Amino acid sequence: MRTANQLLILTVITTIFTVCAFAKVEPDLPEDPTYILIGRAHPELTGIRGLCIDISMPQAQAKKYASIWKELKSKIESKLALHGITVIPQFHNGRKITCPALRVDINLLSLDNSQQHVFRVQTSLARSVHLATQPKLGFQADVWKEKAAMQEVSVQNMPATVTAVVLAQVDSFIEDYRIANPPGRQPADANEIAALITTPARETKKPVKLTTAESKFVASKNSKVFHKSTCSSAKRIKPGNLVSYGTREKAAEAGKRPCKICKP
Predict the structure, then answer these.
(1) CA separation for the pair 166, 172 (Å, rounded)
(2) Omega before 27 cis (within 30°)?
(3) d(CA 262, CA 234)
(4) Nearest residue to 167 via CA among 155, 180, 149
(5) Residues 38, 114 within the same domain
(6) Domain tally for the chain?
(7) Which residue among 61, 194, 218, 242 has the highest number of C-beta atoms inside a 10 angstrom radius?
(8) Mind listing the pLDDT tens digit for each residue in 233-262?
């Protein structure tokens, strides 16, 4: 009987870890014919325009410092609003709604026989994730997280210090959010990433035209090697990265070394 119970527990644990391993942010990123998502940092924050704020801490601390946390939440809301991020109430008609959540985890430890606290603060962004093969199996999971901060502080300075640390972490979130959602590329629906495919395609740069004198030797901005303009490697250089030189000497002065294939 004991062996059977152990096997059951092992099966449950294995299932949980398997679910976590194959989970991905929902909704899925769509096919991207306009290539607006390629190379964009923090894709996990893409398409979020509205979110809930959840300040989490032990119940005793929540009651003892209720006014401090209420003021802190108000300051977070103001910061988000300045950058066009709408704050959504966590509850509607008495029921908790599912929405992207900016979570602020705060823990305070009072040191014995001392007017000192040790606190830990960590801010994260949670949103819905689901199994790629089974979209109905979904849950909220952290997709962005700031490094936890831990510090000792006096009882008198605790409110101001904790507030400053939290707001600094919120600033980090806003910075990453703005990178993921640049101006002019906001989706029509606040939380629908699929709407991104309606964004106009990026402007295509016209090919760089080189004169005969300039095109004798070429190199890439990202490479230390220069080539003859007829070299097969030269033809693979993207126009935006193409640099031309009239002579070998000029290429050498620019810190470039000759290609071993075409031997310019």
Answers:
(1) 10
(2) yes
(3) 10
(4) 149
(5) yes
(6) 2
(7) 218
(8) 887 787 777 888 888 888 888 888 888 778
Residue pair 119/109 in contact by the 8 Å Cβ criterion: yes
Range of the domain at 173: 23-198
Stated length of the chain: 264
Same domain, 163 and 41: yes
Task: Show Cβ contacts of residue 20 under 8 Å, excluding neighbours closer than 6 positions.
Answer: 141
- How many CB atoms within 10 Å of residue 157? 12
For residue 96, the 8-state DSSP code is E
Matching residue, tokens 């220069």: 226
* Together in a domain, 125 and 155: yes
Whether 149 and 225 share a structural domain = no
Q: What distance in Å separates the CA atoms of residue 65 and residue 76, rounded to the nearest whole number? A: 17
Residues 167 and 242 in one domain: no
Tokens of 170: 């919120």
Q: Are residues 170 and 221 in the same domain?
A: no
Q: What pLDDT score does 40 carry?
A: 54
